[in-house]
Design brief:
Layout (H helix, E strand, L loop, with lengths): L1 H21 L26 H13 L14 E7 L1 E2 L2 E2 L5 H6 L7 E8 L11 E8 L3 H16 L6 E2 L9 E4 L5 E8 L2 E8 L5 H19 L37 E4 L1 H5 L5 H10 L4 E5 L3 E4 L3 H17 L2 E4 L8 E6 L12 E7 L2 E7 L2 H17 L2
Antiparallel strand pairs: 1-4, 2-3, 4-5, 5-9, 6-7, 7-8, 8-9, 10-11, 11-12, 12-16, 13-14, 14-15, 15-16
Length: about 400
């Protein structure tokens, strides 16, 4: 074991040494303080409720319906993702609905909002919001759905029931004269919550929209097996240790933004163009996206698929007004870019970026410092090339 681990440690160092020799330079490429080998973490070792909630939420997200299957105009991603935090449901639902969920143990949840991109024109704006919540059992799911529906219904005295003949168990209501509708339906221990806005305030059109959405969403869930409440804390975030093969710049603590592994569908739903991104992922058979503190590892089918996806990412960079710059000398599969101007809307660093490709992996790196992005790229190349 000692010899094998020592050889693994030597592999990335050897690759950099050979690179330096090939470049006619005695100094290895500059990697700053970044590790050249994976830094082990214990984030998956012991049962953890926070981690389990994140993982089960992503499992649900992999079955969430894409709204443009219901209305082809609903192609714009307007928010969503994991909706359950340490204090319960914290996203997508209204305040009265979140309050109604207070007594319930919501195990996990994922949701997404899609629109037709007409948010600045109320008369033409359409949207569909789908959220799925997991509770310990069907009885609690039913009670939670009833509590949310009742709280939302009584929030406005003009609300009126809207029955769905195909789904009589659904709890739905609208406000006559207003083209919006809310609805809740229980499947096993899951609550499906829908909110929609259309153009014409027609109960017939709203009923049809809800019916088609439930029909398609239930088809997506058909083979899904929710994790038992007692087993949620045992779920593993990163069984393949993808996160340890991304340059380490933060603590190993599960977090939906900073330290997480997504599947292709759940991750695409976070983007501005979900269906376009999903098609790109499917084109390269991407089955996992590891997010680690503003760095993103994509696992594709093979090296050829990785090249295809790296080309797609490069096109995105150029379209976003990035300009190619020199990367670390002599490293194959590495390309770097500089943004034409700082993005004041982005809190995470975006000024400089590199793509690192090796075997079936593509990693997108970001930094606000040019020297730092190249150091990250050197370390990332070593992590991918020397340790698998």
């Amino acid at each position: 074991m000692y010899v094998r681990n020592r050889l693994r440690w030597l592999a990335p160092l050897l690759s950099l040494t050979l690179l330096a020799a090939a470049c006619g330079d005695n100094a290895a490429p500059d990697h700053g303080d970044y590790a050249l080998e994976p830094v082990a973490g214990d984030y998956d070792d012991a049962p953890n409720t926070v981690r389990g909630t994140l993982v089960e939420s992503v499992r649900i997200g992999e079955r969430l319906l894409f709204a443009d299957r219901i209305d082809p105009q609903l192609t714009f991603g307007n928010g969503g993702g994991l909706v359950v935090g340490v204090h319960g449901v914290d996203n997508l639902l209204s305040g009265v609905q979140r309050t109604a969920l207070g007594p319930f143990d919501v195990l996990a949840g994922y949701g997404a909002i899609a629109s037709n991109g007409q948010s600045d024109n109320e008369s033409k704006h359409k949207l569909l919001s789908i959220t799925i919540l997991s509770l310990p059992d069907e009885a609690q799911a039913m009670a939670a759905a009833q509590a949310m529906a009742a709280a939302d219904f009584t929030a406005n005295t003009e609300n009126a029931p809207l029955p769905l003949p195909e789904y009589p168990a659904a709890l739905s209501h609208w406000r006559p004269g207003v083209p919006t509708v809310g609805s809740w339906l229980v499947w096993k221990n899951l609550v499906i919550r829908l909110y929609a806005k259309i153009i014409e305030p027609s109960p017939k059109l709203l009923t049809d929209l809800l019916t088609r959405t439930y029909r398609a969403q239930l088809a997506e869930l058909d083979t899904f097996v929710p994790t038992r409440a007692a087993d949620v804390p045992k779920l593993k975030l990163d069984s393949d240790k993808l996160l340890t093969h991304v340059v380490k710049t933060g603590d190993y603590w599960p977090d939906k933004w900073d330290f997480m592994v997504y599947g292709p569908r759940s991750y695409a739903l976070l983007r501005d163009d979900p269906s376009i991104n999903l098609r790109e992922f499917e084109q390269s058979s991407i089955d996992a996206i590891a997010v680690s503190y503003n760095k993103f590892l994509y696992r594709t089918r093979d090296s050829e698929a990785a090249k295809t996806y790296a080309d797609i990412e490069e096109k995105h960079s150029l379209a976003a007004d990035y300009t190619p710059i020199a990367g670390p000398p002599g490293l194959s599969g590495v390309s770097c870019y500089r943004a034409a101007r700082p993005d004041n809307r982005s809190v995470p660093a975006r000024r400089f970026s590199c793509l690192v490709r090796h075997n079936q992996f593509v990693v997108r790196l970001y930094s606000n410092q040019e020297i730092d992005i190249r150091q990250q790229a050197v370390a990332q190349h070593a992590l991918l090339s020397g340790s698998w």
